[in-house]
Every structure is written in structure tokens, then in C-alpha cells.
Amino acid sequence: GALKTSIGHLEGAAGIAGFIKLVLVLQHRSAPPNLRLKQLNPHLDIEGFPVVFPTEAVALGGMGGASGTSSLRHRKLIGGVSSFGFGGANAHVVVEEGDGTAVLTDSTATREASGSPTVKWNRLSFPFSRLSHPLVGRVRKETEDERVYETAVRRDVHQLIEGHRVMGKVLMPGAGFIELMGAHASLGSESETVGAQDKVSLGPVCLSRVEIEQPLMLPPSDSAEFASVRNVTIRVSVSAENEVIVASRHGLPGEELEGREDEWAVHSRATFEDLSEGGSSTGAMFEKEQEDLSALRTRFEEVREFDPKEYYAAAARLGFGYGPRFQTLAKLWRGGEEGKESLSCLRLRAFSERRGAALQGKESDCSNEGDCESMKVEEVDRAFRVHPALLDGAFQTAATSLLAGERSPRVMVPSGVQKAVLGSLEGEEEVWAHVCTVSTSSALCAFDVRLFSPTGRVVAEVFGLQMRPIDLSRAAPIPRELLWEVRWKAQASSAQQADMKESESSSVSPSVAGHSDVEAVRVDRPLLFLCAPAEDVEEIARLHPGSKVVAASGGKGTGEGMGGLPKEQAELVELLSGTAWAEVLYLGSLTADPMCRQDVSEGRDLGESVPCHSDTDSESVSAAAAVEGATVALECIRVLQALGCEEWPKETARPRVRFVTAGAHQIPELEGEGN
């Protein structure tokens, strides 16, 4: 019979309403009447066609029922329902009667307790087209030099990121930035102002020199800020030079804020190469890469005492709040030289809005396998190239060595990647991660990561993953007048220096224990020397009486950094503004290990990783030098931020600051001219 005679036409819901009616018909073995049907349309020719149009309830025969033939009473009924959509989508569903005793549930505990035959759902998604990438929006601006995409953080994306909290703050994971930049790097070159998210290629893409400059924080959905703040918009600019930059601000995509570009907070940047174009040999090799999982596991020993629930509880005590979708670490193995390698099995945990506590990053009630089965994987989880939770699980695997190997573990998060090659998971919900520890220190840890499917297909490789202690304090803006640039100039030859007049060379110029290439400055006020080499402190104080010398706290090659600045910004501001300094000279780079400067002069990255299975002295020195060089750069930034912070006394002039380097640098254009 037709359900429309009872409830009318429900348009988009008509098909499911008819399906529900059919299930009820089979359950009660009775067909309801077509209401208000008195006479058939005379144009309907049903002669010889075995059909009944009931005008009253018709019993279809049942187990022990009084109606129907004897053979019908004990046979299962089969019914069908058709749906003809306005848009041309036609469907027909065939349903068979059940035996009436099965328990329809997803819970393992319920199935075992019922003692009855049960039905376990095997939910699959069959989209008519590839799902849109959730982090790619529309093109908002396009020039010859760059293309700019903007997208509001969708509700389902916000729910996903809420499962990643650090020190109570909802943060976009480092793996999310890598996925975000990789998706935009794989977009085609054709201009698409609408539907660009559907153009994301699944071919391999290579990101280089990935930098995560500052975290992207979102308001928790249970906070007052979430109710009051406007949408958060992510902007991704892709330049003609293959550079991708990620920024964000409050507001809607395309919203004009009086042209104020400083409203955008830059979070990450990288250079990229689309390996799927132009017959790239690197891309072809990556797509053919296979990992022999069986052979690989023979090199590792399973950490049997590893309990994911205990691990995530320990992570929560440390400051990491992982929701169920980011609790991907299922099993762990250790191996390699000195246990520096790890192997893990990662599974994408399902999600449900009913799990309110888990959504807030609190301890999940999904520890029971049966509970997890009742949760479903959302469509947004299937729309990524490499799901951020799975890639983050590989990074968590790296962090397990830090949690297990230290008495006082630190909260460290990804801050950069030397190189990342990304493929696509193609909807797979289980992957394996092979992680190699390259170097560790209190200021910087480096790892190499490889992600592959259960069949061995390599889907991602991350080289030189850098993890640093996180600082969630608001960064002080640097005034534009304090933005500096490096300008190289030719160094005078020895003969030219000898010809300089004695009076000019002795005009009270700040000298630093043999480093006399600093431009002369007439000093009538004291100088402030920051992070001076310990062995040179007395000599500097002798040459500049009345000046203040702050010694560096570290030592060469320690890998512990060249600290010396006050830890708190307020103390650093007080040091810089408390006295009318003639100049401030930062000498931290004179303390850094020469190996670091050699790396820079030879064109190598500070974070360049070393081979996974090597343990040579030179590699250890290079790793320590990389830490020292990075610490120097961070301290220089801290000095600039202190000069430009809001806490700087309004009536106090800012002193001139010099960052002193050591050694000569060959400039190709000036070679042969005595440089």
C-alpha cells in the first residue's frame, strides 16, 4: 500500500518513511489499508496482474496466525520499496523478514549477555564523488605571484581539533599543519573560485623547510569564548615560487577588515613540490615504495607492558589532552641500536557526539572495546589525504621515548620538519609507523618517521621532525621600526687594517676578546654585553669598565643551549631598560660551537637529520651544534620582542642592539677582492 495516503508526501524523507513502513509490515505480517481508497482509476489496466490494493488491513499469514494458507504461515516474507527522487535518483530496496529473536546492537557486552543471535553492523560509506577536503576553501585572491585560499573552520573540523589539547588549550596539531599545507600544495594550477576543495590531488607532494611559528588556538566549544567569538578563518597563500603560508584570524572568509593585513596571525610556512606532475622520478619511486612489515617486526620486541589507556592517562597528567579520535596508538615495539627505533600500530578511533567528556579532551569512556564499536567514523575523517590523528599518532610514538626515558618529561610539540613526502591513505583506518630517534636534548629533539599501510604501502615520510618545549604565552609584537635585515659588506684586508690610523682604531670601540670587526662607536655611556663567552667575561669587563657583562650559562658542544638571558620577559625588559645603555651587544653566537657555524657556511640546515643507524662522534657534534645554533636564534628573537613589548617603559628610549657573529663569510660576488 501507499504510505502517502496516511501522511502525505514527505519529499526528501518519503523514501525512508516507506522503508520504515515496510519493516513494520514484515514485523507484524499485516498490510495496512490505503486510506480513503474507494475506487481504482479506470485507466489502470491490472487484468492478469497479481496485485491487491487493500482498503482494509490484510493479514499476510503468520507464525500460528489464523489467516493465510498453511504454507505461508511458516515462510519468511520478502518486501520491496521503491523511491523515485525529484532529482532523478531512483532506488529500490528488498527487505527479508527476520526470525524475531536477533539482537541488533554494536556492543560486544550486550551481544554476549543476550545469548541470542545478533547482528553486528558493518557500516560502509559509498559517496557518489570524492569527499571535499575539510581544510581547503575558495580562492579569494589571485595574482601572477600568489593565490590565496580562505575557509572558515567547519563545525566538524572544530570537533576534531578539540580532541587535541596542550596545557588545556585547543591547538591545531603539527600534523594538521602538514596535512593542510600538503593539500594546498597538491591543488591544480587551474583557477577555481568554487569547489577548489574537490580538486585536491591524491598524488605525492613534498614539503621542505616546514616551520611552525606559533600555535593555532581555537576556543573550546564548552567555553563562553566559543559563544561570543566570531568564526575563525584560515587563510593559505600559495606563491608562484612554491611557498605555502598558513595564517588565521577571527571573522568570516572574504570579510574585509579595512585592508589591515596585520590582523592575520601567521602560523606555519613551507616550500613544496608536487611530485605527481611532470613525471617526477621521486614521486614515482615514492608511490612504488613498499615496507616488508613481517621482516621489519623481526627487528623489534613488543613492549608488552605498554597500555594505551595508561599512556594517555600519563600524557594527560603531563599536559596533553587527547580525545578518542587522537588516541590512535594501539601497540608499541622497540628496537634498533640502543632502543632508538620504535614501531607502532595506529588505529583511527571512532567518534560520536554523545561522548561529551571525550570531546572535551578528558579521559574517554571509550576504553571498552564494545563502547568503541558503538561509535562511528565520521565522513570528515575519510576526507583527508593523511588523517592528522594518524600522523599525530606517529609523532606520539616518538614522544613515548621521551616519556619513558626521563624522570621529568617535558611538554614538547612539533616545531618544524626538514622534509615531508605525503601520499594518501585512501580511507584506511589502520597504519603502521616506524620512528627513529636522531637526537635528543632538553631544548630540541629530532626524529625520522615513516608511515605505511598494513599491506606495506608507504603513505608518508617525515625527515628531521623537530620537537621543542611549547610556550603558549602571547608573543609580543615586534614594531616595524625594529624589523632588521642582514647586509653583508666587504671585510678590510690585513694590509688595509694596518694602514688605519691609531686614533681611529682606538676611539673607544667596543671590542670582544679578539673580535674587532664590529663597527666603531663612540661610547660615553655603559655597554650591556649579553651571553658573553665565559672565558672572555673578565677581558670584556677590563676593556669596558662600568659596563655590564652577562655570561652565557651553557658551554660549547653541550647541546643544552647557550642560555644566559633572564627566563621571564619582565626581567629581560628590566635589564634592557633599567640603565641608559649606549648599546646592547648580544654575543651568544660567539659561544655557539664552531661546528654550527660550519654547517651554516656549508649551506646545511640547523635541523638537518643524520642517518638512522649511525652513532659517530661527528654526528653527535653536529646535533649538539644544531641545538646551540637554534637556541641563539631564539634568544635573538626574545631580545627583539622585549624591545617591542607593551611593558617597555614609555619614557625610556630603546637602546641600539648589535648581534655579533664570528668568522668571515665568503661572498661569491666579492671573491678575489680581498674579502
Automatic annotation (TrEMBL):
InterPro entries to which the protein is assigned, alphabetical: Ketoacyl_synth_C, PKS_Beta-ketoAc_synthase_dom, PKS_dehydratase_sf, PKS_DH, PKS_DH_C, PKS_DH_N, PKS_mFAS_DH, PKS_NRPS_Biosynth_Enz
Region (N-terminal hotdog fold): 133-279
Ranges of residues in domain Ketosynthase family 3 (KS3): 1-97
Transmembrane segments: none
Active site as annotated: H164 (proton acceptor), D392 (proton donor)
UniProt KW keywords: Phosphopantetheine, Phosphoprotein
Entry's Gene Ontology BP terms: fatty acid biosynthetic process
Cited Gene3D superfamilies: 3.40.47.10, Polyketide synthase dehydratase
Pfam family of the protein (one): PKS_DH_N
Entry GO MF terms: fatty acid synthase activity
Domain PKS/mFAS DH: 133-476
Keyword DNA damage set for record: no
Region feature (C-terminal hotdog fold): 301-476
Name of this protein: Uncharacterized protein
UniProt lineage: Eukaryota, Sar, Alveolata, Colpodellida, Chromeraceae
